[in-house]
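Hey,
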Amino acid sequence: MEFIELKNADCYARIALKGAEPIVLQYINGKNVLWEKTTDHWNRVAPHLFPIVGRLKEDAFVHNGIRYGMSQHGFARDALFTLTHQSENRAVFLLEDSEQTHENYPFKFRFELIYELIGNYLTICYRTTNTGEEVFHYSVGGHPGFALNDSLDQYELHFEEPFISPRRKLKGSFFDGETEFMEVNKTLPLTNELFAEDAVVFFDPPFQRVSLCHSIHGKRVTMECVNWEAVGFWTKAGAPFLCIEPWWGHADHADHNGILNNKAGIHRLEAGKTEEFSYKLILP
């Protein structure tokens, strides 16, 4: 079995066991809103980012004086999850620490992905438990890519309220403190120029919902997240997708000293404790 299916009277979702990655979300008789990975632009659909979000300086960190290598966005996106529960509209996937994960991350953990398909929306919940005796340091996030059936400039992002917020600039995959204030009057037109300096990133987003809309055909999908710590919008020039990325954590700062405990955006989970974060993907 390579994937499982969820459905209700309205919608259908397909989720791969590798990475517990959603690969289809659609109305029963509709089209998939997720990118179907049919080109060479990007080899993912909607990966989950754990136990880090973004990139570490030199792709490594130091913990208790020992240096560990860790690739961008962590190892969960390439891991084979165990399906621990499945009903018609709900599924739970599990990833636990092992000798293999300890080579890159010296912590004990239980990482669960909980999917629930209700009406016209899919809820994705991250539940992380520290099963060890020391503080668990981690970040987590989503990276779903949504299909563009037209050129990027035919799409826009819709927000419920106008806002002014600093865009956090990335320089070579890292944050260097540079910001650019963006003023959005409910609608942000999408252009290749907008992403010329990589992702558009907001820390502490001043909104809880954002919709990807076609200028003529209307709303494609809405993401709702009430407690995200950061959000990234990302695509590549000419690519037929746009990613909306809910994050609890972020890439290293350019001046980070590599010590995991000092990393900005890191979560510190006490022994035996559990944290949950979630977001919704809503079909129009």
